[in-house]
Amino acid sequence: MNALNVAEYTHTLGSQAKAASALMAKAPAAVKNKALRALARLLREHTAALQDDNARDLERARAAGLAEPMVDRLKLTPKVLETCAEGCEQLAAMADVIGEIIGMKQQPSGIRVGQMRVPIGVFGMIYESRPNVTIEAASLSIKSGNACILRGGSEAIDSNKALARLVQLALAEAGLPEDAVQLVQTTDREAVGQLIAMPQFVDVIIPRGGKGLIERISRDAKVPVIKHLDGNCHTYVDAPCDVAMAVKVADNAKTQKYSPCNASEGLLVARGVAAEFLPLIGAVYAAKGVEMRVCPESRALLAPVAGAKLVDATEQDWSEEYLAPIISIKLVEGVDEAIAHINHYSSHHTDAILTTDHVHAQRFLREVDSASVMVNASTRFADGFEYGLGAEIGISTDKFHARGPVGIEGLTSLKYVVLGEGEVRG
Amino acid sequence: MNALNVAEYTHTLGSQAKAASALMAKAPAAVKNKALRALARLLREHTAALQDDNARDLERARAAGLAEPMVDRLKLTPKVLETCAEGCEQLAAMADVIGEIIGMKQQPSGIRVGQMRVPIGVFGMIYESRPNVTIEAASLSIKSGNACILRGGSEAIDSNKALARLVQLALAEAGLPEDAVQLVQTTDREAVGQLIAMPQFVDVIIPRGGKGLIERISRDAKVPVIKHLDGNCHTYVDAPCDVAMAVKVADNAKTQKYSPCNASEGLLVARGVAAEFLPLIGAVYAAKGVEMRVCPESRALLAPVAGAKLVDATEQDWSEEYLAPIISIKLVEGVDEAIAHINHYSSHHTDAILTTDHVHAQRFLREVDSASVMVNASTRFADGFEYGLGAEIGISTDKFHARGPVGIEGLTSLKYVVLGEGEVRG
């Protein structure tokens, strides 16, 4: 396709999505759930065929010299497909939030005013690599009564096309418009530029991928973007605290998994508890091979720990998202300095305080300006499933509209509903 | 100021606002209310001085040949100032929503997860003409725990400066940072361009003014915009309906006031009720001098009405926001055609159905894609005060974040709060 054709093609997708969104918005819950269960069944019935389609992507990736861990992320194994199918069934079993009316109150004029939850309309999703995102996005879109346009990575195009075909079969089986979930069929990069600049058709863009991709999309988009940038998360060990618990939580927050955005990258420790706490956590990190980027005071307390990998922290370390067995460690005077440090250096994703002091806990919750603030829990919990949202389309580090893990409600908006009996304005 | 100086100046405002916002976010409700009551007192104490400052704006406006209705909008009469003072006191008397925690639920892991309402941070407000907006925006900003940067029109600069000085005195009296409310002191247009492009300092922009201003700001802003474009509102008279009520409501929706955005600009009438209803409403409109832009069928029914000003409607009329004694009138088959017409031509602001049919009412509420949908009430009710929001910073015709009248909650966001007892992720 040339640029003109791509623009025309993307506009056609947009106009079809817009038309489908009106039908999706009024679809009864039972019909949307029927489509989700049909999709689960189709994914199981077509597991072998999907693997054949997936094999072409894998072959191309290997031929292009992609590293094996990257090839792994592309794989549609029977286990991955079963997880997708179960996800669809879980969504089908969840209550439908569309149409719920909240806060209906009578006003002095006599009218009753409330808000009805409705789908946002059409969302565009731009993602890389893992083709199972196609099913996650499609199923969330169906459940939330939206239409969506999906643009996966070129490396997964054959898998994504096969998956999207099944989604459209499931929609048709339930009597819903196939255009409710459309995959961009071209790998031309121009399609992304078009997709993010059609406010007449697309209500919000959700990018998932590297920071470069997300920054580029945020800069160029002509519609709102639900974006997730860095996860520079902190665990602050307060004085007083339960030191044994603090060791367990600070360990989990860093080492349970290194790559997720909700892993802690910075450890702040109150001076009053540092002499007791630091050698204990230092020994845990040393045993797991976690490198510690330390301030001078914490170096002094950690130096005696056998096998500790200590590196002097630079200013840059306080802002760093390592996603690796590395953690920065800094001593602070107390909760004031901890809050100030976090509000300055954190990426406003997730930050936790470990404390037994009620006032410190309340101040931390109120004053730390992050999407998730925690008391006595591992930052690793910042996740749509752990929060009970049932599903997650992404995590927002913005304050506008959706903040933190974004589930079905993040794909909805509230419109005002006014019920009268012939009232007029005086 | 030259462009460079304006950029530097605006950045200084931004950085000061950002610093002040952290203090405002943690200010206790009593302290914010103290500032609001101090502001009310200061407005009353300085009424004479404020009128002197205002007189300079009025003089300049008259010298520039501004029409007297426009000059009127600039006036800070004792009545206008008293209304401002009362508004501050009403806000002070309202419950504080900042810090409220909603939906706290225990999850299978043991953690409890809820959401805390927090200020959005810093908002920028760009407005024209009426200087009392300075007090409305400042008082809402204080109550909601935000900081704001206000950019009024050059025609009201002396009044705005005087009002902003009082706001800062009130903040200081309560022990709050004066930078929590800053007025852009230069009338240089470059300052607007800067203000809307500082995502590091400003979280959201709220423009109030003509459509041209709002479109320009939406196009160029690098931060989210809460925008209100047209108000092409509809009243649909269904069959069956209470015809006497329909006449009363359709009259009020059009004629109670012609200039507001929530006045009805289009009247749709079901064929089944048109022969009875149209001559009645036609006589009302004729008596009030309202011009009717009619489809051929409604012309036939309205032609016998004495004094009716009938004009054949063009395609353009269905999209028009008249803000004048003009209304478009079209016959439709029923609720399906009404919904389709509205979703096609409406500006998604406010649309009402007048009906006695329960199913029609429910379908209209669910399927009309507008910020406010009403049953048996005048579209003129679409307003923050009438909805019980206590105050209104603007009306949003967007779906993202805030939709419809925007009160204090529209200036807040929800962050996740997680309370644990040492839980870790498995």
Automatic annotation (TrEMBL), chains A, B:
- Quote the EC number: 1.2.1.41
Q: Which Gene3D superfamilies match?
A: Aldehyde Dehydrogenase, Chain A, domain 1, Aldehyde Dehydrogenase, Chain A, domain 2
Keywords per UniProt: Amino-acid biosynthesis, Cytoplasm, NADP, Oxidoreductase, Proline biosynthesis
Instruction: Mark the transmembrane ranges.
Output: none
Q: Which GO terms describe its cellular component?
A: cytoplasm
The reaction(s) annotated as catalysed by this protein in its Swiss-Prot or TrEMBL entry are: L-glutamate 5-semialdehyde + phosphate + NADP(+) = L-glutamyl 5-phosphate + NADPH + H(+)
- GO MF annotations, alphabetized: glutamate-5-semialdehyde dehydrogenase activity; NADP binding
**Matching PROSITE patterns:** PROA (PS01223)
Where, per UniProt, does this protein localize?
Cytoplasm
Check the record and name the InterPro entries matching this protein.
Ald_DH/histidinol_DH, Ald_DH_C, Ald_DH_N, Aldehyde_DH_dom, G-glutamylP_reductase_CS, Glu-5-SA_DH, GPR_dom
Instruction: List, for all copies, the residue spans of the domain called Aldehyde dehydrogenase.
Output: 15-281, 312-382
- For the keyword Lyase, the answer is no
Q: Which SUPFAM superfamilies match?
A: ALDH-like
Top-rank taxon: Bacteria
> Which GO biological process entries does UniProt record here?
L-proline biosynthetic process
Name its pathway.
Amino-acid biosynthesis; L-proline biosynthesis; L-glutamate 5-semialdehyde from L-glutamate: step 2/2
According to its UniProt entry, the function of this protein is described as: Catalyzes the NADPH-dependent reduction of L-glutamate 5-phosphate into L-glutamate 5-semialdehyde and phosphate. The product spontaneously undergoes cyclization to form 1-pyrroline-5-carboxylate.
- Give the UniProt family note: Belongs to the gamma-glutamyl phosphate reductase family.
Listed HAMAP family: ProA (MF_00412)
**This chain belongs to which protein, by name?**
Gamma-glutamyl phosphate reductase
Tell me which species this is from: Acidovorax soli
Organismal lineage = Bacteria, Pseudomonadati, Pseudomonadota, Betaproteobacteria, Burkholderiales
